[in-house]
Amino acid sequence: MPFAIRIHRVGGPEVMSWEDVQVADPAPTEARVRHEAVGLNYIDIYHRTGLYPLPLPSGLGLEAAGVVEAVGAAVTDLNPGDRVAYAGGPVGAYSQVRCLSADRLLKLPEAIDCRSAAAMMLQGLTSAYLLRRTCRVQAGDAVLIHAAAGGVGLIACQWAKALGATVIGTVSNEAKAALATAHGCDHVIDYTHEDFARRVREITGGEGVRVVYDGVGKDTFAGSLDSLRTCGMLVSFGNASGPVPPFDPLLLSQKGSLFLTRPTLIHYTAKRADLSALGAELFEVVGSGKVKIEVNQTYPLVDVARAHCDLEARKHTGSTILLP
Question: Name one GO molecular function term (predicted).
């Protein structure tokens, strides 16, 4: 019988348990997938702690890659033996085997292995919608990417650089600064020693950046607004430091008719056509070598509590995978 990580209450890493689960044959529109690797992401912590509530009991995890074991009677574009990957839900990727809707699965190109796929799907598709849909980055744009040495950060910095942008990244130490520099950042700011908004103004000759991609939240929100040029856009897509407190929208006007959006991958990939298009862009940019996927941490799935602790302590760089 396969195993999976389950939670019966919200809380710290200790609420996750390794349990036997039953996996049925796939429904007519489903496929059953045996995971070879599972991705770890900060949103998993939000689910575990209840910041993003889930009906309980529940599984965890939003991305994985593996091999199709069986398909339902109505599935025509997948076959047993196909290598596939997915991201964005429903939760339950922290498992050895699961069934899920076939229209959420993307076939992997030969050049991309399952471990790389599991490490890049959520972070890569996030980077894809941020850079190519939410605010379409063009050559010559100046962009600010927070947590530049993190999973999304390393992918987004490389991708933005490949698009011809001037990439400014924030980090918390020298080692992460070196990593960000090696992955596309033209300018790296250690926010523990510098006022990043003031430094951004210096780098851009006082103008500010066209867009800020902010997955940190509370700690960076005010400075992100101060880093934008007139009519610039703040894309707030995460809460690693906690949720942004309420504020008066008039502030956006006072700081230069700014735009603010709080997007999610779920909405940008709700339609199969959109998921496929973003996936194709991601596979192309990775396959071309313009974006390299850095799997810097690997844990057994059964040891996921330690992985969560290390992620919350900001010990991770790049991507992390869990091995079932």
Answer: quinone reductase (NADPH) activity
